[in-house]
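Incident log, support desk, overnight shift.

02:14 A customer reports that sequence design results differ from what the structure should imply. Their input is reproduced verbatim below. On-call engineer (initials T.W.) acknowledged and began investigating.
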């Protein structure tokens, strides 16, 4: 697969349209488009699940504060 190819930008009303050649086709239906200087970067957005995303995160090692500290136990609350 080539690293680059020459393509044309077309006008569709107020939008520019880029036709992506077959050899550069993305499997995703959504992409992230960003501009860096005079370059446009197109990145596919994976449709992975939340569980697969969470599996990539590092474990939390810090201790969380006790938010119940100073509160009455639930059994002692009378309505």
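02:41 Re-run completed on a clean worker. Output:
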């Amino acid at each position: 697969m080539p690293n680059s190819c020459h393509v044309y930008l077309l006008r569709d009303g107020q939008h520019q349209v880029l036709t992506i050649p077959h050899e550069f086709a993305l499997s995703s239906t959504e992409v992230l488009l960003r501009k860096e200087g005079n370059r446009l970067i197109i990145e596919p957005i994976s449709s992975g699940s939340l569980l697969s995303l969470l599996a990539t995160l590092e474990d939390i090692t810090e201790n969380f504060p006790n938010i119940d500290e100073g509160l009455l136990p639930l059994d002692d609350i009378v309505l």
